[in-house]
Fold this protein.
Amino acid sequence: MRKLLIVYLISSLIAGCAENNTKKSVNPTNKKKSDDKFKTEIVLNSNDTMKFDQNMLLVNAGSTITLTLNHTGKFGKRGMGHNFVLLKSDVDVAKFALKAAQAYKTEYIPEGDEILAYTKLLGGGESDTITFEAPKKGYYTFICSFPGHWQLMKGKLIVK
């Protein structure tokens, strides 16, 4: 009888451990991790030497992107303004930049349909956050459209 009681207790203990392992594998946090691939947070910094701290951003197609642009420099936006402008894949960047340089009244965001997303123009110490949907798979150029900055302040958004 005593042996039977010990066998029962051991088998109950083993069954309880197996049940806990099963619960862990269907834990709701696993679902949250798969949802995270559809939400992407990006922090991009710019400075007074006309540079972004990243020139390549990788995201999943269809994901919701929250991008924060920080201007970590000290100069104001009239002399050293920075923004983030994400262009459609087929846009001629040099032609767009020329058009943007002439759009002073709209803080260097020209009229047209070449832009997918953009932040406001920032001076030193300022930041702006935008949220947008990632476009279809491909390569997209992002720039700062302040006059003359695009040649140094550019990068690629890679959508996989």
